[in-house]
Amino acid sequence: MLSNRIWLLFSILLSFVHNGIAGLTSSFIRSEWPSTDIPLDNEAFALPKGYNAPQQVHITQGDYDGKAVIISWVTPDEPGSSQVRYGISEGKYDFTAKGTVKNYTFHNYKSGYIHKCLVDGLEYDTKYYYEIGDHDSARKFWFQTPPRIDPDASYKFGIIGDLGQTYNSLSTLEHYKRSGGQTVLFVGDLSYADRYQYHDVGVRWDTWGRFIEQSAAYQPWIWCAGNHEIEYMPYMGEVTPFKSYLHRYPTPYPASKSSDPLWYAIRRGSAHVIVLSSYSPFVKYTPQWRWLAEELKRVDRKKTPWLIVLMHVPIYNSNEAHFMEGESMRTVFESWFVKYKVDVVFAGHVHAYERSYRISNIHYNVSSGYPYPVPDKSAPVYITVGDGGNQEGLAGRFRDPQPEYSAFREASYGHSTLEIKNRTHALYHWNRNDDGKKVATDAFMLYNQYWGTSKRRRNLRKNRLYSVIVNRPLSERL
Ligand SMILES: [Fe+2]
Protein backbone atom coordinates (compact mmCIF):
# COMPACT_ATOMS: atom_id res chain seq x y z
CA MET A 1 0.00 0.00 0.00
CA LEU A 2 1.35 3.38 -0.92
CA SER A 3 1.16 5.95 1.79
CA ASN A 4 -0.92 9.10 1.41
CA ARG A 5 2.30 11.04 1.48
CA ILE A 6 3.60 9.34 -1.62
CA TRP A 7 0.30 9.84 -3.40
CA LEU A 8 0.51 13.51 -2.54
CA LEU A 9 3.96 13.61 -4.09
CA PHE A 10 2.61 11.95 -7.24
CA SER A 11 -0.16 14.52 -7.41
CA ILE A 12 2.28 17.39 -7.19
CA LEU A 13 4.55 15.91 -9.81
CA LEU A 14 1.62 15.06 -12.05
CA SER A 15 0.42 18.61 -11.86
CA PHE A 16 3.85 19.67 -13.13
CA VAL A 17 3.62 17.20 -16.00
CA HIS A 18 0.12 18.27 -16.95
CA ASN A 19 0.47 21.99 -16.49
CA GLY A 20 3.91 22.35 -17.97
CA ILE A 21 5.07 24.84 -15.36
CA ALA A 22 8.74 25.51 -14.77
CA GLY A 23 10.84 22.49 -13.90
CA LEU A 24 12.83 21.81 -10.78
CA THR A 25 16.56 21.92 -10.30
CA SER A 26 17.25 20.07 -7.10
CA SER A 27 19.55 21.80 -4.67
CA PHE A 28 20.37 18.53 -2.97
CA ILE A 29 24.11 18.16 -2.53
CA ARG A 30 25.05 14.64 -1.61
CA SER A 31 28.23 13.47 -0.02
CA GLU A 32 30.12 11.15 -2.28
CA TRP A 33 33.10 8.91 -2.26
CA PRO A 34 36.07 9.99 -4.38
CA SER A 35 35.59 9.13 -8.04
CA THR A 36 38.36 6.58 -8.09
CA ASP A 37 38.09 2.97 -9.11
CA ILE A 38 37.94 0.25 -6.49
CA PRO A 39 41.41 -1.35 -6.09
CA LEU A 40 42.02 -4.61 -7.90
CA ASP A 41 42.43 -6.60 -4.69
CA ASN A 42 39.08 -5.47 -3.23
CA GLU A 43 36.48 -8.11 -2.41
CA ALA A 44 34.12 -6.49 -4.95
CA PHE A 45 36.28 -8.17 -7.59
CA ALA A 46 36.93 -11.39 -5.69
CA LEU A 47 37.88 -14.43 -7.75
CA PRO A 48 35.71 -17.53 -7.31
CA LYS A 49 37.41 -20.44 -5.61
CA GLY A 50 38.73 -23.41 -7.53
CA TYR A 51 40.87 -24.14 -10.57
CA ASN A 52 39.46 -22.56 -13.73
CA ALA A 53 36.24 -21.59 -11.90
CA PRO A 54 33.74 -19.68 -14.06
CA GLN A 55 33.77 -15.94 -13.37
CA GLN A 56 32.07 -12.83 -14.77
CA VAL A 57 28.79 -14.71 -15.12
CA HIS A 58 26.01 -12.68 -16.70
CA ILE A 59 22.78 -13.30 -18.55
CA THR A 60 20.71 -11.41 -21.08
CA GLN A 61 17.50 -12.16 -22.92
CA GLY A 62 18.16 -14.67 -25.69
CA ASP A 63 15.19 -14.27 -28.00
CA TYR A 64 12.45 -11.83 -28.99
CA ASP A 65 9.78 -12.83 -26.47
CA GLY A 66 11.54 -13.89 -23.26
CA LYS A 67 11.63 -17.69 -23.50
CA ALA A 68 15.42 -17.83 -23.80
CA VAL A 69 18.52 -16.46 -22.10
CA ILE A 70 22.11 -16.15 -23.23
CA ILE A 71 24.44 -17.11 -20.37
CA SER A 72 28.02 -15.88 -20.62
CA TRP A 73 31.06 -16.46 -18.40
CA VAL A 74 34.85 -16.56 -18.45
CA THR A 75 37.20 -19.36 -17.51
CA PRO A 76 40.71 -18.09 -16.82
CA ASP A 77 43.05 -21.06 -17.21
CA GLU A 78 41.76 -23.30 -19.99
CA PRO A 79 38.62 -23.45 -22.13
CA GLY A 80 36.86 -26.12 -20.08
CA SER A 81 33.24 -26.95 -20.77
CA SER A 82 30.75 -24.56 -22.41
CA GLN A 83 27.83 -26.58 -21.14
CA VAL A 84 25.00 -25.17 -19.04
CA ARG A 85 23.11 -27.65 -16.86
CA TYR A 86 19.69 -26.36 -15.81
CA GLY A 87 16.31 -27.29 -14.42
CA ILE A 88 13.42 -26.08 -12.30
CA SER A 89 14.53 -27.71 -9.03
CA GLU A 90 17.59 -26.63 -7.11
CA GLY A 91 20.45 -29.05 -7.66
CA LYS A 92 18.48 -31.14 -10.14
CA TYR A 93 19.50 -30.33 -13.66
CA ASP A 94 17.31 -32.20 -16.11
CA PHE A 95 18.46 -30.27 -19.17
CA THR A 96 21.73 -29.24 -20.78
CA ALA A 97 22.65 -26.69 -23.40
CA LYS A 98 25.93 -26.47 -25.27
CA GLY A 99 27.59 -23.11 -25.90
CA THR A 100 30.68 -21.82 -27.61
CA VAL A 101 34.00 -20.48 -26.37
CA LYS A 102 36.49 -17.99 -27.78
CA ASN A 103 39.00 -15.42 -26.63
CA TYR A 104 40.56 -12.26 -28.01
CA THR A 105 43.61 -10.09 -27.60
CA PHE A 106 43.76 -6.37 -26.93
CA HIS A 107 47.27 -5.02 -27.37
CA ASN A 108 49.33 -7.23 -25.02
CA TYR A 109 46.31 -8.45 -23.05
CA LYS A 110 44.95 -11.91 -23.76
CA SER A 111 41.44 -12.51 -22.51
CA GLY A 112 40.25 -15.56 -20.65
CA TYR A 113 38.02 -18.08 -22.39
CA ILE A 114 34.68 -16.38 -22.97
CA HIS A 115 31.72 -18.76 -23.06
CA LYS A 116 28.29 -18.01 -24.50
CA CYS A 117 25.42 -20.41 -24.28
CA LEU A 118 21.87 -19.96 -25.51
CA VAL A 119 19.34 -21.64 -23.24
CA ASP A 120 16.00 -21.62 -25.04
CA GLY A 121 12.59 -23.26 -24.98
CA LEU A 122 12.01 -22.07 -21.42
CA GLU A 123 8.64 -21.78 -19.72
CA TYR A 124 7.35 -18.34 -18.79
CA ASP A 125 7.17 -17.20 -15.18
CA THR A 126 9.41 -19.98 -13.95
CA LYS A 127 12.47 -20.04 -11.74
CA TYR A 128 15.36 -21.93 -13.32
CA TYR A 129 18.48 -23.10 -11.55
CA TYR A 130 21.67 -23.47 -13.54
CA GLU A 131 25.17 -24.75 -13.09
CA ILE A 132 28.33 -24.03 -15.10
CA GLY A 133 31.97 -25.07 -14.83
CA ASP A 134 33.63 -28.39 -14.23
CA HIS A 135 34.00 -30.73 -11.25
CA ASP A 136 34.81 -29.06 -7.94
CA SER A 137 34.90 -25.61 -9.57
CA ALA A 138 31.29 -25.72 -10.79
CA ARG A 139 29.13 -22.77 -9.76
CA LYS A 140 25.38 -22.51 -9.28
CA PHE A 141 23.00 -19.64 -10.03
CA TRP A 142 19.34 -19.08 -10.85
CA PHE A 143 17.06 -16.75 -12.81
CA GLN A 144 13.36 -16.13 -13.23
CA THR A 145 11.76 -16.06 -16.67
CA PRO A 146 9.34 -13.20 -17.39
CA PRO A 147 5.57 -13.50 -17.72
CA ARG A 148 4.28 -14.38 -21.17
CA ILE A 149 3.68 -11.55 -23.62
CA ASP A 150 0.50 -10.01 -22.26
CA PRO A 151 -0.73 -6.42 -22.32
CA ASP A 152 -1.48 -6.40 -18.60
CA ALA A 153 1.64 -8.23 -17.43
CA SER A 154 3.19 -6.41 -14.49
CA TYR A 155 6.96 -6.16 -14.46
CA LYS A 156 9.64 -4.06 -12.80
CA PHE A 157 12.60 -2.84 -14.81
CA GLY A 158 15.67 -1.16 -13.38
CA ILE A 159 17.51 1.47 -15.38
CA ILE A 160 21.25 1.98 -14.83
CA GLY A 161 23.76 3.94 -16.87
CA ASP A 162 27.43 4.90 -16.89
CA LEU A 163 28.17 2.55 -14.04
CA GLY A 164 31.94 2.09 -13.96
CA GLN A 165 33.63 0.45 -10.98
CA THR A 166 34.06 2.97 -8.17
CA TYR A 167 32.64 2.87 -4.64
CA ASN A 168 29.80 5.01 -6.00
CA SER A 169 29.17 2.31 -8.63
CA LEU A 170 29.04 -0.25 -5.83
CA SER A 171 26.55 1.87 -3.93
CA THR A 172 24.34 2.13 -7.04
CA LEU A 173 24.45 -1.62 -7.59
CA GLU A 174 23.66 -2.37 -3.96
CA HIS A 175 20.74 0.05 -4.00
CA TYR A 176 19.44 -1.46 -7.22
CA LYS A 177 19.63 -4.99 -5.80
CA ARG A 178 17.29 -3.88 -3.01
CA SER A 179 14.80 -2.27 -5.41
CA GLY A 180 12.99 -5.42 -6.51
CA GLY A 181 13.90 -4.79 -10.15
CA GLN A 182 13.60 -7.89 -12.33
CA THR A 183 15.64 -6.87 -15.39
CA VAL A 184 18.18 -4.10 -15.92
CA LEU A 185 17.91 -1.79 -18.90
CA PHE A 186 21.51 -0.62 -19.17
CA VAL A 187 21.96 2.61 -21.12
CA GLY A 188 25.64 2.35 -21.99
CA ASP A 189 29.17 2.97 -20.65
CA LEU A 190 29.86 -0.21 -18.75
CA SER A 191 33.33 -0.64 -17.29
CA TYR A 192 35.24 2.56 -18.16
CA ALA A 193 38.17 0.24 -18.86
CA ASP A 194 39.15 2.58 -21.69
CA ARG A 195 40.36 5.02 -19.04
CA TYR A 196 43.30 2.63 -18.68
CA GLN A 197 46.09 1.77 -21.07
CA TYR A 198 47.67 -1.33 -22.53
CA HIS A 199 47.23 -4.51 -20.49
CA ASP A 200 45.08 -2.81 -17.86
CA VAL A 201 42.20 -2.21 -20.31
CA GLY A 202 41.44 -5.92 -20.42
CA VAL A 203 42.09 -6.29 -16.70
CA ARG A 204 39.43 -3.68 -15.93
CA TRP A 205 36.89 -5.36 -18.20
CA ASP A 206 37.49 -8.50 -16.13
CA THR A 207 37.04 -6.73 -12.81
CA TRP A 208 33.82 -5.13 -14.04
CA GLY A 209 32.48 -8.52 -15.09
CA ARG A 210 33.17 -9.88 -11.61
CA PHE A 211 31.66 -6.75 -10.05
CA ILE A 212 28.25 -6.98 -11.77
CA GLU A 213 27.96 -10.75 -11.44
CA GLN A 214 26.13 -10.35 -8.11
CA SER A 215 23.16 -9.05 -10.12
CA ALA A 216 23.77 -9.98 -13.75
CA ALA A 217 24.14 -13.73 -13.09
CA TYR A 218 20.62 -13.79 -11.65
CA GLN A 219 18.64 -11.50 -13.94
CA PRO A 220 19.05 -10.24 -17.51
CA TRP A 221 20.85 -7.02 -18.20
CA ILE A 222 19.74 -5.57 -21.53
CA TRP A 223 22.80 -3.98 -23.10
CA CYS A 224 23.11 -0.69 -24.95
CA ALA A 225 26.56 0.54 -26.02
CA GLY A 226 28.10 3.88 -25.03
CA ASN A 227 31.18 5.81 -26.08
CA HIS A 228 33.36 4.05 -23.52
CA GLU A 229 32.71 0.81 -25.39
CA ILE A 230 34.21 2.14 -28.64
CA GLU A 231 37.86 1.77 -27.54
CA TYR A 232 39.39 3.18 -30.71
CA MET A 233 43.00 3.28 -29.51
CA PRO A 234 45.39 3.57 -32.45
CA TYR A 235 48.40 4.26 -30.22
CA MET A 236 47.99 0.68 -28.97
CA GLY A 237 47.29 -0.68 -32.41
CA GLU A 238 43.62 -1.26 -31.49
CA VAL A 239 41.31 0.23 -34.10
CA THR A 240 38.35 -2.16 -34.18
CA PRO A 241 35.45 -0.37 -32.50
CA PHE A 242 33.60 -2.13 -29.68
CA LYS A 243 36.07 -5.04 -29.69
CA SER A 244 36.04 -5.84 -25.95
CA TYR A 245 32.33 -5.11 -25.56
CA LEU A 246 31.21 -7.28 -28.44
CA HIS A 247 33.34 -10.21 -27.33
CA ARG A 248 32.00 -10.07 -23.79
CA TYR A 249 28.39 -8.88 -23.91
CA PRO A 250 26.25 -10.71 -26.48
CA THR A 251 22.79 -9.47 -27.47
CA PRO A 252 19.91 -11.34 -29.15
CA TYR A 253 19.96 -9.11 -32.23
CA PRO A 254 19.05 -11.72 -34.89
CA ALA A 255 15.74 -12.37 -33.10
CA SER A 256 14.57 -8.86 -34.00
CA LYS A 257 15.91 -9.12 -37.55
CA SER A 258 18.78 -6.75 -36.78
CA SER A 259 22.04 -7.17 -38.64
CA ASP A 260 24.18 -5.81 -35.81
CA PRO A 261 24.50 -6.57 -32.07
CA LEU A 262 24.59 -2.83 -31.33
CA TRP A 263 20.91 -2.24 -32.17
CA TYR A 264 18.05 -4.66 -31.57
CA ALA A 265 14.74 -5.11 -29.76
CA ILE A 266 13.18 -7.46 -27.25
CA ARG A 267 9.69 -7.98 -25.92
CA ARG A 268 9.31 -8.79 -22.24
CA GLY A 269 5.94 -9.10 -20.48
CA SER A 270 3.99 -6.03 -21.58
CA ALA A 271 7.00 -4.07 -22.84
CA HIS A 272 8.64 -3.68 -26.22
CA VAL A 273 12.19 -2.43 -25.67
CA ILE A 274 14.16 -0.94 -28.56
CA VAL A 275 17.93 -0.53 -28.16
CA LEU A 276 19.69 2.00 -30.40
CA SER A 277 23.36 2.76 -30.97
CA SER A 278 24.41 6.39 -30.70
CA TYR A 279 27.80 5.46 -32.18
CA SER A 280 26.73 3.56 -35.28
CA PRO A 281 25.46 5.16 -38.48
CA PHE A 282 21.80 6.15 -38.09
CA VAL A 283 21.05 8.69 -40.79
CA LYS A 284 18.57 7.95 -43.54
CA TYR A 285 19.17 4.71 -45.49
CA THR A 286 21.76 3.32 -43.05
CA PRO A 287 21.19 -0.21 -41.71
CA GLN A 288 20.15 1.08 -38.27
CA TRP A 289 17.69 3.55 -39.80
CA ARG A 290 16.15 0.88 -42.03
CA TRP A 291 15.94 -1.60 -39.16
CA LEU A 292 14.23 0.87 -36.82
CA ALA A 293 11.70 1.80 -39.49
CA GLU A 294 10.71 -1.88 -39.74
CA GLU A 295 10.88 -2.60 -36.02
CA LEU A 296 8.53 0.26 -35.17
CA LYS A 297 5.99 -1.24 -37.59
CA ARG A 298 6.28 -4.56 -35.75
CA VAL A 299 5.33 -3.00 -32.41
CA ASP A 300 1.86 -4.21 -31.45
CA ARG A 301 0.55 -2.07 -28.59
CA LYS A 302 -2.36 -4.43 -28.12
CA LYS A 303 0.15 -7.10 -27.07
CA THR A 304 2.98 -4.97 -25.66
CA PRO A 305 1.53 -1.59 -24.70
CA TRP A 306 4.76 -0.18 -23.27
CA LEU A 307 7.16 1.09 -25.90
CA ILE A 308 10.57 1.92 -24.40
CA VAL A 309 13.65 3.16 -26.28
CA LEU A 310 17.21 2.96 -24.94
CA MET A 311 20.11 4.99 -26.30
CA HIS A 312 23.31 6.32 -24.82
CA VAL A 313 23.34 10.00 -25.80
CA PRO A 314 20.26 11.89 -24.56
CA ILE A 315 18.19 13.78 -27.08
CA TYR A 316 17.04 16.31 -24.48
CA ASN A 317 19.68 17.37 -21.97
CA SER A 318 20.15 20.70 -20.23
CA ASN A 319 23.47 19.90 -18.58
CA GLU A 320 26.58 21.69 -19.79
CA ALA A 321 28.13 18.25 -20.17
CA HIS A 322 27.37 16.82 -23.62
CA PHE A 323 24.88 19.60 -24.39
CA MET A 324 23.40 19.16 -27.90
CA GLU A 325 25.34 15.94 -28.60
CA GLY A 326 22.05 14.13 -29.22
CA GLU A 327 20.83 16.69 -31.74
CA SER A 328 21.85 14.69 -34.79
CA MET A 329 19.89 11.63 -33.67
CA ARG A 330 16.96 13.86 -32.68
CA THR A 331 16.65 15.22 -36.19
CA VAL A 332 16.54 11.69 -37.60
CA PHE A 333 14.38 9.77 -35.10
CA GLU A 334 12.29 12.20 -33.04
CA SER A 335 9.42 12.36 -35.51
CA TRP A 336 9.14 8.54 -35.37
CA PHE A 337 9.09 8.58 -31.57
CA VAL A 338 6.15 10.98 -31.74
CA LYS A 339 4.38 9.14 -34.57
CA TYR A 340 4.59 5.81 -32.76
CA LYS A 341 3.87 7.33 -29.35
CA VAL A 342 6.94 6.00 -27.57
CA ASP A 343 6.27 6.00 -23.83
CA VAL A 344 9.72 6.79 -22.55
CA VAL A 345 13.27 7.18 -23.89
CA PHE A 346 16.05 6.34 -21.44
CA ALA A 347 19.60 7.57 -22.03
CA GLY A 348 22.85 7.93 -20.09
CA HIS A 349 26.12 9.67 -21.00
CA VAL A 350 25.52 12.76 -18.84
CA HIS A 351 26.56 11.97 -15.27
CA ALA A 352 23.47 13.36 -13.63
CA TYR A 353 19.72 12.78 -13.56
CA GLU A 354 17.20 14.66 -15.70
CA ARG A 355 13.59 14.18 -16.84
CA SER A 356 11.77 16.12 -19.54
CA TYR A 357 8.15 17.01 -20.02
CA ARG A 358 6.39 15.53 -23.03
CA ILE A 359 7.76 17.86 -25.68
CA SER A 360 8.86 17.68 -29.30
CA ASN A 361 10.74 19.81 -31.76
CA ILE A 362 9.61 18.09 -34.93
CA HIS A 363 8.27 21.27 -36.56
CA TYR A 364 11.70 22.79 -36.62
CA ASN A 365 13.82 22.60 -39.70
CA VAL A 366 16.67 24.78 -40.79
CA SER A 367 14.31 27.26 -42.49
CA SER A 368 11.03 26.96 -40.56
CA GLY A 369 11.72 29.52 -37.86
CA TYR A 370 10.30 27.36 -35.04
CA PRO A 371 13.43 26.32 -33.18
CA TYR A 372 11.94 25.59 -29.76
CA PRO A 373 10.52 22.38 -28.31
CA VAL A 374 6.78 22.63 -27.67
CA PRO A 375 4.41 20.58 -25.48
CA ASP A 376 3.38 17.47 -27.38
CA LYS A 377 1.09 14.83 -25.86
CA SER A 378 2.30 12.23 -28.35
CA ALA A 379 5.96 12.69 -27.43
CA PRO A 380 7.91 10.43 -25.07
CA VAL A 381 9.22 11.44 -21.70
CA TYR A 382 13.02 11.68 -22.00
CA ILE A 383 14.95 10.52 -18.96
CA THR A 384 18.73 10.68 -18.49
CA VAL A 385 20.09 8.19 -15.99
CA GLY A 386 23.84 8.58 -16.53
CA ASP A 387 24.37 8.67 -12.79
CA GLY A 388 25.65 5.15 -12.07
CA GLY A 389 28.86 6.43 -10.47
CA ASN A 390 31.95 6.04 -12.66
CA GLN A 391 35.43 7.46 -12.17
CA GLU A 392 34.74 10.62 -14.20
CA GLY A 393 32.51 11.98 -11.42
CA LEU A 394 29.26 13.95 -11.54
CA ALA A 395 28.20 16.49 -14.17
CA GLY A 396 27.18 19.25 -11.77
CA ARG A 397 26.83 22.25 -14.09
CA PHE A 398 23.32 22.59 -15.42
CA ARG A 399 22.44 25.34 -17.88
CA ASP A 400 20.81 28.35 -16.31
CA PRO A 401 17.96 29.16 -16.55
CA GLN A 402 16.47 25.69 -16.67
CA PRO A 403 14.91 25.23 -20.13
CA GLU A 404 11.14 24.88 -20.27
CA TYR A 405 11.40 21.31 -21.53
CA SER A 406 13.28 20.18 -18.42
CA ALA A 407 11.02 18.95 -15.62
CA PHE A 408 13.48 17.77 -12.96
CA ARG A 409 17.24 17.59 -12.76
CA GLU A 410 19.79 16.78 -10.12
CA ALA A 411 23.47 15.84 -10.10
CA SER A 412 23.53 12.82 -7.78
CA TYR A 413 24.35 9.16 -8.22
CA GLY A 414 21.52 6.66 -8.45
CA HIS A 415 19.34 4.47 -10.63
CA SER A 416 15.71 4.36 -11.77
CA THR A 417 12.95 1.79 -11.70
CA LEU A 418 9.93 1.49 -13.97
CA GLU A 419 7.28 -0.69 -12.40
CA ILE A 420 4.66 -1.57 -14.99
CA LYS A 421 1.35 -2.25 -13.25
CA ASN A 422 -0.89 -3.03 -16.23
CA ARG A 423 -1.53 -1.71 -19.73
CA THR A 424 -2.35 1.82 -18.57
CA HIS A 425 -0.17 2.60 -15.56
CA ALA A 426 3.51 2.34 -14.67
CA LEU A 427 5.09 3.68 -11.51
CA TYR A 428 8.39 5.42 -12.20
CA HIS A 429 10.95 6.25 -9.53
CA TRP A 430 14.41 7.76 -9.58
CA ASN A 431 16.41 6.52 -6.63
CA ARG A 432 19.24 8.68 -5.38
CA ASN A 433 21.89 6.51 -3.73
CA ASP A 434 22.08 8.32 -0.42
CA ASP A 435 19.33 10.44 0.93
CA GLY A 436 19.91 10.99 4.59
CA LYS A 437 17.35 13.79 4.43
CA LYS A 438 13.68 13.85 3.54
CA VAL A 439 14.10 15.31 0.11
CA ALA A 440 11.76 14.19 -2.62
CA THR A 441 13.37 12.16 -5.35
CA ASP A 442 11.63 12.00 -8.70
CA ALA A 443 8.57 9.74 -8.79
CA PHE A 444 5.40 9.76 -10.82
CA MET A 445 2.77 7.59 -12.45
CA LEU A 446 3.42 7.16 -16.15
CA TYR A 447 0.27 6.80 -18.24
CA ASN A 448 0.61 4.58 -21.25
CA GLN A 449 0.71 6.53 -24.50
CA TYR A 450 -1.49 4.04 -26.34
CA TRP A 451 -3.92 2.76 -23.69
CA GLY A 452 -3.72 5.67 -21.27
CA THR A 453 -5.33 8.22 -23.52
CA SER A 454 -8.34 8.75 -25.75
CA LYS A 455 -11.24 6.42 -26.34
CA ARG A 456 -9.35 3.27 -25.43
CA ARG A 457 -8.80 4.57 -21.89
CA ARG A 458 -12.43 5.65 -21.54
CA ASN A 459 -13.58 2.20 -22.52
CA LEU A 460 -11.22 0.63 -20.04
CA ARG A 461 -12.46 2.94 -17.32
CA LYS A 462 -15.99 1.79 -17.96
CA ASN A 463 -15.07 -1.83 -17.88
CA ARG A 464 -12.13 -3.73 -16.51
CA LEU A 465 -10.24 -1.09 -14.57
CA TYR A 466 -13.26 0.55 -12.95
CA SER A 467 -12.41 -0.77 -9.51
CA VAL A 468 -8.81 0.35 -9.76
CA ILE A 469 -9.76 3.84 -10.73
CA VAL A 470 -12.41 4.42 -8.08
CA ASN A 471 -9.89 3.41 -5.45
CA ARG A 472 -7.46 6.10 -6.50
CA PRO A 473 -7.32 9.22 -4.33
CA LEU A 474 -9.43 12.19 -5.28
CA SER A 475 -6.42 14.25 -6.32
CA GLU A 476 -5.61 11.65 -8.96
CA ARG A 477 -9.13 11.67 -10.41
CA LEU A 478 -9.44 15.39 -10.97
FE1 LIG B 1 29.09 8.25 -22.32
UniProtKB/TrEMBL annotation:
This protein's record includes keyword Glycoprotein: yes
Keyword Aminoacyl-tRNA synthetase: no
GO CC annotation terms, alphabetical: vacuole
Cofactor: Cu(2+); Mn(2+); Fe cation; Zn(2+)
Organism domain of life: Eukaryota
Swiss-Prot/TrEMBL catalytic activity: a phosphate monoester + H2O = an alcohol + phosphate
Residue ranges of domain Purple acid phosphatase N-terminal in the record: 54-145
Listed name of the protein: Purple acid phosphatase
Enzyme class of the recorded protein, top EC level: hydrolase
GO biological process: phosphate ion homeostasis; regulation of phosphorus metabolic process
Subunit-structure text: Homodimer; disulfide-linked.
Signal peptide: 1-22
One Pfam family in the UniProt entry: Pur_ac_phosph_N
GO-annotated molecular function: acid phosphatase activity; metal ion binding
E.C. code: 3.1.3.2
Annotated family: Belongs to the metallophosphoesterase superfamily. Purple acid phosphatase family.
UniProt-listed InterPro entries: Calcineurin-like_PHP, Metallo-depent_PP-like, MPP_PAP, PAPs-like, PAPs_C, PAPs_N, Purple_acid_Pase-like_N
Domain Purple acid phosphatase C-terminal: 379-439
SUPFAM superfamilies: Metallo-dependent phosphatases (SSF56300), Purple acid phosphatase, N-terminal domain (SSF49363)
Protein source organism: Coffea canephora (Robusta coffee)
Domain (Calcineurin-like phosphoesterase) ranges: 156-353
Keywords: Glycoprotein, Hydrolase, Iron, Metal-binding, Signal, Zinc
